[in-house]
Amino acid sequence: MDISRAELEPVVVKFYRQYMQQINDVTYPSGSLLVNPDVQDCIYRYFFDSSRNKYLPPPKYQARILKHIISDIEKACKNPEEDQVSDLLMEHMGILSAIPQQQPFEDAQQAQVHSYFPPLPLDQVGVRPILIKEAQNLLSRGNNVGLRTWEAAQHLAWYLMMERPDLVKKKNVLELGAGTGFLSLLCAGELDARHVLATDGLAHVCESLQTNADLNKANDTLHGHNPPQVQQLDWTDQSELEQVLRDARKDCIRYDLVIGADITYHPDILRPLAELLKTLSDVNPGLQILISSTIRNVHTFSQFTAICQEDLGFRITDVKCIIPEGLRYSGFFHSVATEIKIVRLKR
């Protein structure tokens, strides 16, 4: 469903995009706007009517949002005979309240489809989200790190979408540590890449990645383009790297851009990653590399850049990416409370 066709206030459209992404800190419209019966009708149809939208958030999330909406409407009611909460919203709240609640741990492990709307104008018609099946609150340790979309991926997505779409359009793109496939799907669809290869080192993550590629193809979110190809690539496995390179030669593909988000988090993987980037640069003249990292440990990221710069001869430059505020912040919602840094590498 395209909420922009409902001709609602931009703040309601932003609220919808945040809601469909299932973020915690949504921007609620004012009570004076929510009290309008037409707005309430649209909110029910777009936010809660599963017959119109098969990828609504789970009941627990719906209930939290709807409870807040109802409270704001009740506070804004000035004339009890004219201003009231719609029957449809109240009935749906009753349905949600009757659903047995899962234990918090079970709830956190449950994969749901999240809709990531790109940061296009809130009044633009036909904006399609990237659909990602993931468990955002999964305990992210060990083999689970690739099963959710991280802030650094959304930060790089914002940069590519709003600042440098030319780096992707009609280009060949390779993603390392692709995880859920969010960035690769953006490149393949909205950003109109010629070819996208999404790689990850873990077989079960590649399976999840393929699921998301199939999900977006089936729901026509890729603007008619082919979904990313998915291939396993362990940075320490020479045979897997050689297979990637052989496939590229066979298909006459020279990669123009390599991207990676939140792939520098552990000291043990820094040198294998840097050496892989050198190999890819050697066989793809003019290759551009963009790495986006949440700086949880300054020393770890500095170690990565030192290996690349001092040992392998890369030139490294910081990429500036400032997320706007207010209604101009219209998609790929993510926290930057912890610094996220994007760097460009070139040899």
UniProtKB/TrEMBL annotation:
<dbReference type="InterPro" id="IPR019410">
    <property type="entry name" value="Methyltransf_16"/>
</dbReference>
<dbReference type="Pfam" id="PF10294">
    <property type="entry name" value="Methyltransf_16"/>
</dbReference>
<dbReference type="GO" id="GO:0008757">
    <property type="term" value="F:S-adenosylmethionine-dependent methyltransferase activity"/>
</dbReference>
<protein>
    <recommendedName>
        <fullName>FAM86 N-terminal domain-containing protein</fullName>
    </recommendedName>
</protein>
<dbReference type="GO" id="GO:0005737">
    <property type="term" value="C:cytoplasm"/>
</dbReference>
<dbReference type="InterPro" id="IPR029063">
    <property type="entry name" value="SAM-dependent_MTases_sf"/>
</dbReference>
